[in-house]
Predict the structure.
Amino acid sequence: MSYAKLTSAMDLVNLLDEDLLIWNKFRNGSADAFGELMRTHYPDLFNYGIRFTKDDGLVKDCIQDLFLAFWLHRMSIIDTEFIKFYLLKSLRHNLIRRMAKSRRRRSEPAFEFDPARKVHKVIAGLSRRQQEILYLRFHWNADTADIADIMALSQPYVVNLLQDVLRRLGKIPSKNAKRRIYDSRRLGLFP
Amino acid sequence: MPNEEYTTLDDLVFSHSFRNWVLKSNSSEAEFWTAWAGRNASREELVNQAREIILALHSNGNALSRETIDAEVEKTLQKLRDGRLNMVREIPFRPSLLGGRVSRYWLVAAILAVLAILFFLFVGKGVKHPL
């Protein structure tokens, strides 16, 4: 099950129990547990990585390198609570480094909120950094401390950017107001 | 279970439970949200706006097939079995101290403070005042 698709608190508890079991086997050197861990995190990591580049081969290479390094250093990893954010941070770092090397220059990563489809113009109008913050907050449920750590930014800066994002999102026009009210009533939301 | 405190746009937009209800109206939380909305009719506009934002942000992403993921995992496991770990160019996985929850600036400040205290305790003692 993917973290991004949890449906209830009970799912989270079950997932954490399941994760802990796999994690302990992985630490004891089980290749099966390693494969399971990789399968669990692969879809979300790929979905994050592919927002930096259209080269899916590069994203897959970076994820593979990441997991092999993860295996090599499995005994020195502190605890399990933040695995998903360790993985995100490391993938981001590795991907940006590899992309910068191929371009022979360092620049802001060109993050796209959703390269697979045309997004709302308010989202498209956000800076790359704001889009990435919004993506991490919305899809990964990362708090501002986690986001600051993953993106190597200060937490107050992330808080400011996120507030600006929310202010802009609040301006999404209610052009379908009539339809939305109709939908709400149809769903039994409002009398 | 979700609590009652949903007063701002971000409370709703970043609530997993609310999001599930918006995207899957038959979710297990549907009953809660229908009742909540009934008790909070004054927040109709807030709820509608949060719904609209969630629909704009929601995406199925670039879904990979199960077969693709299995193939990638198998390739990685094969490298493990073959002992081809030297191909990992450098360590991309570097967990930070205390799970990355403490800023590196605070750590540097803390180390400097400890060094300063040690300096005054041990070096400062040796200074003889003329009086």
Observations:
- Residues 1-110 of chain A form a domain with the Rna Polymerase Sigma Factor; Chain: A fold (CATH 1.10.1740.10).
- Confidence is low (pLDDT under 50) at residues 1-13, 175-182 of chain A.
- Chain A touches chain B through 77 residues (CB under 8 Å).
- Residues 83-103 of chain A form the longest helix (21 residues).
